[in-house]
Write a structure and sequence with these properties.
The complex is a heterodimer of chains A (226) and B (418). Chain A is α/β, with parallel strands linked by helices. Chain A has 2 domains: 2-96, Methyltransferase, Methionine Synthase (B12-binding Domains), Chain A, domain 1, CATH 1.10.1240; 104-225, Rossmann fold (3-Layer(aba) Sandwich). Chain A has helices at 2-14, 33-42, 47-67, 73-96, 117-127, 142-151, 164-180, 195-200, 210-225, and strands spanning 104-110, 132-140, 156-160, 186-189, 205-206. A 5-stranded parallel β-sheet of chain A has the order 2-1-3-4-5, sandwiched between helices. In chain A, helix 1 packs across helix 4. Chain A is globular, with a radius of gyration of 18 Å. The relative contact order of chain A is 0.12. Chain B has 418 residues and is an alpha/beta fold. Chain B has one domain (5-30, 63-85, 150-417): Alpha-Beta Barrel (TIM Barrel), CATH 3.20.20. In chain B, 36% of the residues lie in helices and 14% in strands. Chain B is built from 14 helices and 16 strands. Chain B has helices at 5-13, 35-44, 66-72, 159-163, 171-185, 220-229, 231-256, 280-286, 288-301, 318-323, 341-348, 364-367, 370-384, 404-417, and strands spanning 22-23, 52-56, 61-62, 76-80, 94-97, 103-106, 112-114, 120-122, 134-136, 144-145, 190-194, 262-266, 305-309, 328-330, 353-355, 390-392. In chain B, strand 2 (52-56) and strand 3 (61-62) form a beta hairpin. The longest helix of chain B is centred in the middle third of the chain and has 26 residues, at 231-256. The two termini of chain B are 15 Å apart. The chains are: A alpha/beta (226), B alpha/beta (418). Chain A binds chain B through residues 15, 21-23, 69, 72-75, 77-78, 81, 111-115, 117, 120, 139, 163-166, 168-169, 191-192, 194, 208-209, and chain B through 119, 135, 137-141, 144, 154, 220-221, 224-225, 227-229, 272-279, 282, 361-363, 366-367, 399-402.
Chain lengths: 226, 418
């Protein structure tokens, strides 16, 4: 079983999605994260084991390499796509409760801002680290974040903004969320956002890259359990 | 007698000390001013009050008229082609009220609708019978692309699909360029032309904003992935695109010669806030040969300087840009990782002209005090203008919500320096 889990992890790391995908060239024709995950489940491997010993460690390697500027956006996107192809097979187990995730993360690009590359990378990395991700999309108002929080009151919230013209909306959304959910943790990020701005608007954490957001979320889980 | 703007420009782009700092506002789609600030500037200088003409509607950049050029003491005039990014001809101007309540002039065929949320939707070539290609959020100040990516079947994907928007210049377009150059040539300003078609893999253009039914790779994420998983496709696309571009450059040069001083080549962003979008090796493999082909043709045949825009933390790619033959680098994002202006000037100041980097638009300009803006403008000029090789501009366009007192502080600092 370890062999197949190692192979799944490798496929996620190098971005091998399925048998049909031609990338990477040296794995052409081989099974990818998609088929291997299905095969692992059929062989009796638990969803938790696949998540904990294959997907999460592989995505952590990718996230850390990205933080160290050793890989770039295309590689991240490809690994995330491979991870998603594996996650599809695990989702039914999350729905039935046979497998449990670390928590729920609600993410969106703030009102007035339509940029989503960075937001999507963060969402994919956090999903790949074992969280349920509710991606509200772009141009998201306070009302939409609050509605999502009504359904998932224990969720952590992530706000993204690419523009100096929309950063101000981040401040409004943080304030509106904190007014109704004082204990909800909010992570902020995006090109013009800084640690100082995070503190100024009353958000809980700023991360300059996806792995920083993952590390913060994991730290929250550790604090809860210890 | 003092040097003209054009002479100072030629000095600085040839790395000679100009008599005074050379200043650009509004000459390209990446060194412009939002229409709202243009209106405020016209007010400030006591110029005729009139609706601002939107010369670049994607980012809602306003025209800097000759009277404003004179008032701001600008040295560079930008020439842009007949059609804008949405494939709409920049003519037959009509007055409109923007969602922030400003009266502006937009091209006659600039047809838009509003959705239920109040967002503005714009259409390729103004054709409202097809899906919109761009949206300005109700609370926004400019458009962003709406991706219209169809299903991708790699077995039938062809480079022609992504070449649809690239073609040889038409008689009408060349005639338009001729009129523009005739009109501005007698000014004492430097001229930079944004000819179009020379940008390689610019994600602002990948969605095919000017196309009614874009085919091929039209999603930005899919494009980034393609640079990894469809390398041959990208190379063939760049190869054929640069062949078309060089034919256009030849035609342009045969008609207008060295009556322009610089040409805008490419706006592809290679930098994020902290890193690059690709490794130097990937750049050399995918982009360098094609950039080099275009730059080499220009340098072998003309006196034009070539302009490359890339936001972000691109310090480690600057040697690759210069090897590609670019003369000018913009916007010099001084707050991104590794983009310390002292270091940039020391390492690359004799190889590349820094066009931008005059004030940090993400921090000081947008959120600092007027005094902080003044101090930064003076410091940046002191560092970057030494021995020439510098054209003053903010880091990218001046946005609608920049405190106007900061815009004035920047202009006052420049006035004091000059």
């Amino acid at each position: 079983m370890k062999d197949i889990l190692d192979k799944i992890a490798l496929c996620v790391e190098v971005g091998k999605i399925n048998k049909l995908s031609a990338y990477p060239p040296n794995m052409k024709g081989q099974e990818g994260a998609d088929e291997l995950t299905k095969r692992a489940l059929d062989a009796g491997c638990s969803p938790k084991e696949i998540l904990d010993t294959a997907l999460v460690p592989a995505m952590a390697i990718i996230g850390n390499k990205f933080s160290r500027n050793e890989i770039y956006v295309p590689q991240m996107l490809l690994s995330a796509r491979a991870m998603s192809s594996a996650m599809v097979h695990l989702k039914p187990f999350f729905i039935t409760g046979q497998a449990v995730r670390k928590g729920t993360f609600i993410i969106g690009t703030v009102k007035g801002d339509l940029h989503d590359i960075g937001k999507n990378l963060v969402a994919m990395m956090i999903e790949g680290s074992g969280w349920e991700v509710i991606d509200l999309g772009v141009d998201i108002s306070s009302a939409k974040f609050l509605k999502a929080l009504e359904e998932k009151p224990d969720a952590i919230v992530g706000l993204s903004a690419l523009l100096t013209t929309t950063m101000e909306n981040m401040k409004t959304i943080v304030s509106d969320i904190k007014e109704k959910h004082i204990n909800t943790k909010i992570i902020v990020g995006g090109a013009p956002v800084t640690q100082e701005y995070c503190v100024k608007i009353g958000a809980d954490h700023y991360s300059q890259d996806p792995q920083g957001a993952v590390d913060y979320l994991n730290q929250l889980v550790n604090n809860r359990t210890h | 007698m003092a040097n003209t703007s054009r002479q100072n420009f030629l000095d600085t782009v040839n790395h000679r000390q100009p008599e005074k700092v050379v200043v650009d506002f509004g000459s390209t789609g990446v060194t412009g001013i939002h229409a709202l600030i243009v209106e405020k500037l016209r007010n400030y200088y006591g110029l005729e009050q009139k609706p601002v003409k939107i010369i670049e509607p994607y980012q809602m950049l306003g025209e800097i008229d000759p009277d404003l050029i004179a008032a701001m003491d600008i040295d560079v005039i930008g020439l842009i082609g007949l059609k804008n990014m949405f494939g709409i001809a920049n003519d037959d101007w009509k007055q409109h009220r923007t969602i922030w309540g400003q009266e502006v002039l937009l091209p006659g065929n600039f047809n838009y609708t509003c959705n239920a949320n109040g967002d503005v939707l714009i259409y390729p070539e103004g054709d409202t019978s097809v899906s919109p290609c761009g949206m300005m959020p109700k609370s926004g100040y400019f458009f962003d692309a709406i991706e219209r990516q169809g299903p991708i079947d790699d077995s039938t994907l062809t480079v022609d699909d992504n070449l649809e928007e690239y073609s040889l210049l038409t008689e009408d377009e060349l005639s338009y360029w001729g009129k523009l150059i005739d009109h501005f040539e007698d000014s004492d300003k430097a001229l930079i032309a944004s000819l179009g078609g020379t940008g390689l893999g610019d994600v602002a253009f990948i969605p095919g904003l000017s196309l009614r039914h874009p085919k091929g790779i039209r999603s930005v994420s899919e494009w980034y992935l393609s640079t990894l998983i469809r390398e041959d496709f990208v190379k063939e696309l760049f190869d054929r695109q640069t062949d078309i571009a060089i034919e256009n450059l030849k035609q342009f040069f045969s008609l207008f010669g060295n009556r322009i001083n610089a040409v805008y080549i490419c706006g592809t962003d290679f930098g994020t806030q902290t890193s690059t979008f690709c490794s130097p090796e990937a750049f050399d493999n995918l982009w360098l040969p094609y950039y080099k082909k275009v730059n080499d043709w220009i340098h072998s045949n003309t006196e034009w300087k070539t302009f490359k825009h890339s936001c972000g933390a691109i310090e480690k790619l600057i040697p690759n840009f210069t090897e590609s033959g670019f003369d000018i680098l913009n916007p010099v994002q001084i707050n991104a990782a590794g983009m310390d202006p002292v270091n940039l000037k020391k390492k690359y100041g004799d190889k590349v002209v820094f066009w931008g980097g005059g004030v940090d638009t993400q921090n000081t300009f947008a959120f600092g005090t007027p005094q902080e803006v003044k101090d930064q403008v003076k410091r940046q000029c002191e560092i970057l203008n030494e021995n020439g090789g510098f054209v003053f501009n903010t880091v990218h366009n001046i946005q609608a919500n920049v405190p106007f007192e900061n815009v004035i502080a920047m202009l006052e600092a420049l006035h004091e320096l000059r």
